[in-house]
Amino acid sequence: MSRYRPIIVVALIIAAAVAAWLVIGGSRRERTLSGYIEGDNLFLSSPIAGTVNSIAVVEGSRVAAGQQLFTIDPATLSAQGQQAQANTEAARTQIASAEATARQAGAELTSAQAEADRARSDLNRLLSVKRDNAAAVAGKDLDAARAALRDADARVLATTLKAGETAEYEPESSRHVYLVPAAGAVEINGVRVNARDGAAIRDEARLKITALEDSELVLVDAA
C-alpha cells in the first residue's frame, strides 16, 4: 500500500494544478454566448411646436435622464408667446364687452320695469280719484294713463320656453332689444346666450329664439 502512496500524491498535485489553471488562466479566454437583445423605438417630441435649432446627440448615443437632447429656435418661442399674449388680450376684451352688454341689458330692464310700475301707479291713482269724484278726472286722462301702461308693459316681455321650443319676435325698425335669460340657455338667430348673459340686439327684422335648455327669458324693447 505504501508503494502506491507517492503516485496518489502526485496525481492529487496534478489535479490541483489543472483546477487552478482552469480558474485563473482559463477565465482569461474569450467566451462566446448565444442569445439576442430586444430594444424599443422611442419617438421624441417637444411639448411646444417650433423649429429645431440644434441636436445634442446622434443615433446610438447613451443619454442620461434629464439630459438636453435638442433646442427650439428662441425666435419661434418668442413669436408663440406674443401670439398667446394677443389671444389673451382679445379674450379679455370680449369678456369686458360681454359684461358691459349684460350691465346695459340689466339697466334697461330695471328702467323698463320702473316705467311700468310708474304707469300702473298713475292709472290706479286716477281710478281712485274718479271713484271719489267722477268729475275730477277726465276720460281722456284715463285713456292716456291706460295707453301709457300698455306701452310700458309692452316694453318688458317675460316668457318661459321648454328645451327645443322656439319663439319669434319682430321688433320695430330702429329699436333696441335686450334679452336676458334668467335661467337656462337659448340661441338667438344662431348665437348662443347663457343664463344671466345679456344680449343687445339691433337692426334685426325678426328674432328667432330657440331654447337649448328649459329657460326663463326677459326681453326689453327699448327706443
Describe this structure in words.
- It is built from three helices and ten strands, in the order H-E-E-H-H-E-E-E-E-E-E-E-E.
- The mean pLDDT is 76.
- A hairpin with a 2-residue loop joins strand 6 (185-188) and strand 7 (191-194).
- Helix content is 43%, strand content 22%.
- Strands 3-10-5-8 form a four-stranded antiparallel sheet. It has a four-stranded antiparallel sheet with strand order 4-9-6-7, with no helix packed on it. A two-stranded antiparallel sheet has the order 1-2.
- The chain has a domain at 88-222: Jelly Rolls, CATH 2.60.120.10.
Question: Please, what is the CATH homologous superfamily of the domain at 88-222?
Answer: Jelly Rolls
Beta-strand portion reads 15-25%
The general outline is: rod-shaped
Structural class: alpha+beta
Low-confidence stretches: none
- Which CATH architecture of the domain at 88-222? Sandwich
Major β-sheet strand ordering: 3-10-5-8
Q: Output the CATH topology of the domain at 88-222.
A: Jelly Rolls
Helix tally equals 3
Biggest β-sheet strands, sense, barrel: 4 strands, antiparallel
State the share of residues found in helices, binned by percent.
Answer: 40-55%
Number of strands: 10
- Element-by-element helix/strand order: HEEHHEEEEEEEE
CATH class of the domain at 88-222, anyone?
Mainly Beta
Give the radius of gyration. Answer: 45 Å
Determine the mean pLDDT.
76
Question: How are the secondary structure elements laid out?
Answer:
Elements lengths: L4 H21 L26 E4 L14 E3 L1 H59 L6 H17 E6 L4 E4 L6 E8 L1 E4 L2 E4 L4 E3 L5 E5 L3 E8 L1
Antiparallel strand pairs: 1-2, 3-10, 4-9, 5-8, 5-10, 6-7, 6-9
Helix pairs in contact: 2-3
